[in-house]
Amino acid sequence: MYHITDLRSVTKEIAKGLLVLKDRIEAAKIPSSKLDETFNLATWNIREFGRKPRTQAAIHYIAEILGQFDLIGVVELRDDLRDLRRVLDVLGPYWRAVYSDAVLDAGGNRERVAYVYDKRQIVFNGMASAAFPRRTKKGTEWIPEFNWWRPPYVASFKSGNFDFVVVTTHIRWGDSEAGREPELRALAQWVADKKALFEKDKRAFDDQDLFAMGDFNIPSVKSKLFSAVTSMGLMVPSALAKSDLGSNLKKDKRYDQILHLPHYPENFTNKGGVVDFFAGNHKPLFPALTKDAFSYQMSDHLPLWIQVNTDVDERRLDQIIQG
User: Fold this and answer.
1) Contact in structure between 39 and 33 (CB atoms under 8 Å)
2) Dihedral, CA of residue 43, residue 38, residue 129 and residue 227, to nearest 10
3) Closest to 144 (Cα-Cα) out of 186, 102, 181
4) Residue 7 has what DSSP assignment?
5) What Å distances lie between residue 79 and 43, 69, 103, 109, 294, CA to CA?
6) How far apart are CA 282 and CA 289, in angstroms?
7) Could you give the 3-state DSSP secondary structure of residue 200?
8) What fold characterizes domain 7-322?
9) pLDDT tens for each residue of 72-103
10) What are the distances in angstroms from CA 128 to CA 107, 114, 125, 271?
11) How far is CA 106 from the centre of its chain?
12) What residue ranges do the domains of the chain occupy?
């Protein structure tokens, strides 16, 4: 949990909005994380973050929400990073970000993915990369079988003795739902290939637990698109398995996901959900804005989160005994 480090930029109006926002965050019942025991993981599509400068109120509100978690995969970050840096300044000196390069063509939409994290709880292990699809040799060249419009972004982290990999993605919207399915199946295949690599030589990889998250543009966990992305081993944590858990402002679509490929299934607590900062009425936060304009200051997506149990010492000792 963070504390506002510089109150000089908080006006009377922002202070009022922050008190309203704190009440809405409190309603999400996010448990505090405990060093070496648990951490809070989230994914949030912050609408066109960096395309146009956010107001100072929005910067404080976004920081207030991000500060509830220890590691957040931020989707729809644009090539301009100045607003991200403003948010990090509000969060304070313990916060860091690692982010992908922007894809500059129309398919990439000048977007990045960022991992924002509290270094007191989360350690960046050093690996960060785009996810590479399978390739086949054609003549003298190795050619990808498939390309995502926006390549998923992969990074490795550690919390306590718990090492893990996160892959965060923004699946295309496209012309139809059917057009999203190949990207989702390619993500499922990437995870399956990573799992096979882990199992081939378990001693070579400490970070065998894997999270896949982001904006999957899946309307429902009952849809064919959800079946596609979970077809090769990815699972939804029990805390997020509710079919009525929406991540859009209306809370009737499940565009965003946190899925996992657990080495230790018991690493996942039964705590998770969304942070409804909208709560059916944006006016207490931005009195002068329409709902649509509000979505460009905050977002049209709600953050999705889970709590992860990182206390794995007993299981590691059992592995040593078993050889």
Assistant:
1) yes
2) -50
3) 186
4) G
5) 19, 24, 8, 9, 21
6) 8
7) helix
8) Deoxyribonuclease I; Chain A (3.60.10)
9) 999 999 999 999 999 999 999 999 999 999 99
10) 22, 10, 9, 28
11) 23
12) 7-322
